[in-house]
Specification:
The complex is a heterodimer of chains A (about 325) and B (about 120). With about 325 residues, chain A is α+β, with helices and mostly antiparallel strands. Helices cover about 40% and strands about 15% of the residues of chain A. Chain A contains 11 helices and 9 strands. In chain A, the strands form 3 sheets. A 5-stranded antiparallel sheet of chain A has the order 1-2-3-5-4, with helices on both faces. A two-stranded antiparallel sheet of chain A has the order 6-9. Chain A is globular and about 60 Å long. Chain B is mainly α and about 120 residues long. Chain B contains 6 helices and no strands. Chain B starts with 6 loop residues before the first helix and ends with a helix. Classes of the chains: A alpha+beta (about 325), B mainly alpha (about 120). Chains A and B meet through helix 6, helix 10 and helix 11 of A and helix 2, helix 4, helix 5 and helix 6 of B.
Chain lengths: ~325, ~120
């Protein structure tokens, strides 16, 4: 990771004066900055700069440049996505990343799911996210043919996830039961749609008016659009509002109806349920990964160690689904 | 009482210390102090509830023999991986639901699914 960018560096990137840069979050390999710039004719121009060490995208992952291009194309297609202002080039010396517009709104889901001023926003949100997904999944693959979006059939993806689980050397009978259950039920489908890949309440930017933007496109890939419908409903993204399976704010049947009404093609509720189980298991393996950060010494932290114990929440959700049909 | 200060008392003392420290910390450190208190609460529940003993008994029931917890887990996982066991295996879903409940009771008894099932 290069040193923190200076105002002059960012001003040169975007061709406009910069009055403030603030680090919002930073990890070992990537960082996000809020940038206040001034646009040509005087008004403030709030931006986000995301940059990461070159090579920090794992092999087979979506290169950051392609992520920015995908985001820009989805913005141009009318989806609520922040406009990309500038993609970093190697000669910029800031690693890989891009500058995009910073939109107003609340990104912390526990806040907008619970605070009363977002009540009207929540009421309209199921229809809004359904329309976004319908539009995303209807985009022709030809429009992204030049981007290195990861791809694979559903059977290949399931085997990849199993291999990922086995990397940790952990034996979880619940996870293995869920894998066995999925292998029996998931039909092998080719990748036919653009999938956001991390479409959950924590990646929605919400204002009192409703959905402002869909964030975080780094896990976008080609696959089955039903994956997004299932992932959105995983219990981990409901923040305790378990009786509203759609991200803690809506009902599955309303999501599916609105998706179809918005032209998203027929929803197979059973297939969406399989993706919900899949997503729950995937989140469980992500918890193993986070715990492994601590155990392996890659990132020793009490927070990583504690999050490893969230595996038991996932195991309980999976067993609730297998015993009672859903969670 | 084997000791005047048992493990649970030590845990409580360290939790109290972290709570005292918290107002002096900020940002990431303050957050980690909260997480650390929570982690100690998990340790205290694990000592009190012995979920691994419950899991060992439940897994032994499904597999039909006794064993160490690691061996029982590995054997059941191997059976699930090669198709010798599955959701139709008698008693398996009930046993693993019991295991998951025992583990979540320790890790996070406030979790919504735990509260739904533990009524």
């Amino acid at each position: 990771m290069a040193a923190s960018p200076t105002s002059e560096q960012v001003a040169a990137l975007i061709g406009a004066p910069v009055t403030r840069i603030e680090a919002l979050s930073g990890g070992a390999s990537s960082a996000t900055y809020a940038v206040d710039a001034i646009s040509g004719d005087g008004p403030p121009w709030p931006l986000i700069l995301q940059c990461a060490a070159t090579g920090s995208v794992p092999e087979g992952g979506l290169p950051r440049r392609d992520q920015a291009l995908l985001q820009q194309r989805m913005h141009d297609a009318g989806l609520p996505v922040a406009r990309v202002v500038r993609i970093l080039a190697p000669e910029d010396g800031l690693g890989e990343g891009y500058v995009m517009e910073r939109l107003p709104g609340e990104a912390l889901a526990p806040k907008w799911l619970k605070q009363p001023q977002y009540e009207a926003a929540r009421a309209g949100l199921t229809a809004q996210v359904a329309a976004v997904l319908a539009r995303l999944h209807a985009q022709p693959l030809a429009s992204v043919a030049d981007l290195k979006l990861p791809t694979g059939s559903t059977a290949q993806s399931l085997e990849r996830m199993f291999a990922n689980y086995r990397r940790f050397g952990v034996d979880s009978p619940v996870f293995d039961l869920a894998f066995a259950w999925l292998r029996e039920r998931v039909a092998d489908r080719p990748a036919t749609q653009i999938v956001h890949g991390d479409f959950r309440s924590g990646n929605l930017l919400i204002s009192e008016r409703g959905l402002e933007a869909v964030l975080d496109w780094e896990l976008a890939h080609l696959g089955d659009g039903h994956e997004d419908l299932g992932w959105l409903c995983c219990n981990a993204w409901r923040f305790g509002v378990w009786d509203k399976p759609v991200g803690g704010f809506g009902l599955r049947v309303a999501l599916h109806e609105a998706y179809e009404a918005a032209g998203g093609g027929p929803v197979d509720p059973e297939r969406a349920r399989l993706w919900e189980v899949w997503g729950t298991l995937k989140w469980g393996i992500a918890c193993l990964q986070l715990g492994d950060d601590h155990v392996s010494g890659r990132l020793r932290s009490v927070e990583r160690a504690a999050i490893g114990r969230r595996v038991s929440e996932v195991e309980l959700d999976l067993m609730h689904i297998l015993a009672h049909g859903d969670v | 009482m084997a000791e005047q200060i048992e493990a649970a008392a030590l845990i409580e003392a360290v939790q109290g210390f972290l709570a005292e420290l918290e107002p002096e910390l900020s940002g990431r450190r303050a957050f980690h102090a909260k997480v650390a208190q929570n982690a100690l609460a998990i340790v205290a529940r694990e000592l009190a509830q012995a979920p691994q003993a419950q899991e060992t008994a439940l897994l032994a029931g499904v597999l039909g023999h006794e064993g160490r917890i690691d061996d029982l887990r590995a054997e059941l996982c191997a059976r699930l991986r090669d198709g010798r066991a599955g959701v139709e295996t008698p008693g398996l879903v009930e046993a693993l639901l019991g295991v998951a409940l025992a583990k979540c009771a320790v890790a996070n008894p406030r979790y919504a699914t735990f509260r739904r099932l533990a009524v």
